[in-house]
Amino acid sequence: MAVTPRKLSMKQRYSALTRDLDWEPSYVDPEKVFPYTAFEGIKIHDWSKWEDPFRLTVDAYYKYQAEKDKRLYAVLDGAAQSQGHLSLSDARYLNAMKLFLQGVTPLEYQAHRNFAFLARHLNGPGPRFAALCQSVDELRHTQTEIHTLSTYNKYYGGFHSWNTMHDRVWYLSVPKSYFDDALSAGPFEFLIAIGFSFEYLLTNLLFVPFMSGASFNGDLPTMTFGFSAQSDESRHMTLGLEAIKFLLEQDEANVPIVQAWIDKWFWRGYRVTALIAQMLDYMLPRKVMSWKEAFELYFEEQMLNGLFPDLEFYGIRPPRHVQQAIDEKETLSHQVYWVLHQFSFAAAFTTSVPGAEDQQWLAANYPDTFEKYYKPLWDKAQRVVDGGGRFFYPGLPQLCQVCQIPMLFTEPGDPTTICQRSSEYKGERFDFCSDGCQWVFEREPEKYVQAWLPVHQIYQGNCGGPSVPEVLAWYGIQDGDGGEYTGSADNTNWERWHSGAPVGS
Fold it and tell me: Is residue 27 part of a domain?
């Protein structure tokens, strides 16, 4: 008698297609099969307790992503065919997208590689499959970002050679050093670094407010890929939270280890967001949300007041140095853009003195700091421009040993004094931009003494030569990519395209 097969429920089908395909090794030592999940000190007693935040099978996952890709590439084709780049608010907006392509896109690919590594080397089938999905997500993000921004490369400088720039250019060592740090850590620390800090803190502040800014500035392709990616980022954030809870629930001895990682990676991620801060406040011609407002909403309200009360149950407190980050929200973007403005002759984007309307917006959003501390700097830079010059810094800046940002941050509570800390290790002095970076260094000094600091490498002759043109050639930066926006090739062509005059006339 034939037996009618019982139809599985969605939960049973998911389990059959993922976890039930796992097996216990019988003729090979499990420690040799999974050699990377023991040395960090984390104790895992039962891998089956891992709860998958998004229960997707492979067929459902690829169908879902393929539908998103169809919508995205339809938008890209339409924008390319209709000369959509001419509908942007201003060519200055593209400076932010140059920084995005150079700084963020290579990070997506690095995340893809290491999540693929975790998909092989995590012991349990649940986290392995989750890591596999995220690995494919990150590769898709890399591809869609490249395809979206490649159209702009036909018309504007600074979009070329972005992968070479990511490995070499001084300001891009900031995001690169973050991922180099994470990739050289163990698998559990990597999950905290990326799933918690990068996804919860950095991409939340980048993909939501900044992609709204893309829409507000007429960049439909970037807005579309940003929100397409953000639907994946929500799953990644949930995966990061599940990783934290799983580790904390497995053994009480994991709590102090996880807490130290949260402390470290909060500060490392926060320092990388300094680049996002100035993108929101200075690089968008049409402002949509200030850095201060975005930080208060997406970090203070949603993360600090939403996530950490839940983690308190497990014995986790808010990150070390969090109050300093909160205090810096009034000054962060202004300090970073001021330094980028001084060194944009060695960058693959242009900068300019904020106009009167921009300064009014900044004063309204930063009433306690902008006019008092930063407007005088821009007035000084404008006087130089009015005299036919340009305010550039003639030397090389000192870099923080950990975050690799130039020493631009100020003492807590004193926006007029540059903050500088130092520690000695094996008879050598190392300098830091903050108490947070000094604390990170002193936990693992043998790791950070190996940092590849661009300024040091230039002085050592490892960056193409001793002169600025030789260094820029080694970077891959061409004439017209950086410097002052006014008079740049981007600005000149932009004005001709919109006046109807032929380019080159």
Answer: no
Phi first, then psi, for residue 322 (nearest 5°) are -65, -35
Pairing state between β 428-432 and 410-411: unpaired
SS3 label, residue 414: strand
Collapsing DSSP to helix, strand or coil, 213 comes out as helix
Q: What digits encode the pLDDT tens for the residues 448-483?
A: 999 999 999 999 999 999 999 999 999 999 988 988
Return the CATH number at 283. 1.10.620.20
Contacts of 335 (CB under 8 A, 6+ apart): 408, 409, 410
What is the span of the domain harbouring residue 202? 47-499
DSSP-derived secondary structure for 13-55: HHHHHTGGG----SSS-HHHHSTTSSTT----S-GGGPPPSS-
The predicted structure's pLDDT at residue 95: 94
7 assigned to some structural domain: no
How many distinct structural domains can be found in the chain?
A: 1
Angle at the Cα of 258 from the Cα atoms of 252 and 264, rounded to 5 degrees: 155
Amino acid at 29: D
Structural domain includes residue 441? yes
Amino acid at 410: T
